Amino acid sequence: MLTLPRTYRGRGLIDINNLLNKQKTILKECFIKRQDIFLLHRAIVNADKNYSPLNLSGEGTFVVTPDREKWIALIQKALHGKHAHALTQPHVDHYHIECLVDLGWAFPCNGGF
Questions:
Q1: Helices (H), strands (E): how many in the chain?
Q2: CB–CB of 22/51 below 8 Å?
Q3: pLDDT over 70 for what percent of the chain?
């Protein structure tokens, strides 16, 4: 719930592990794609025998959990599932709820704490 973006009714905090795994995936793909073009990239990929966190010569992948899967996992929980079910009703105006949350008017009783 904490790492879900505010559009999914989360706190909007950044999931550091997800961000790290995304960056590793992008870097590994960059090196793998460029090894056919540049000799330096080919030498780096061939020399990396699990010496770096990328493990360029290996076939391991990094787990990146999409926000949609986090939302589905949240809905399946008993306590938070009721809240998520209420938000998915057709009569709920998501645009105005997001405006109230962004302005800080949604929960005025928590403002002083």
A1: 5, 0
A2: no
A3: 68
- CB atoms under 10 Å from CB of 102, counted, come to 10
pLDDT of residue 111: 46
CA-based max dimension of the chain: 62
**pTM for the model:** 0.59
Q: What is the pLDDT of residues 40-73, one digit of tens each?
A: 989 998 888 888 888 888 787 888 888 788 777 7
* Residues 27, 54 contacting (CB under 8 angstroms): yes
Q: What local confidence, expressed as pLDDT, does residue 5 receive?
A: 67
Residue type for position 77: K
Rg (CA), the chain: 21
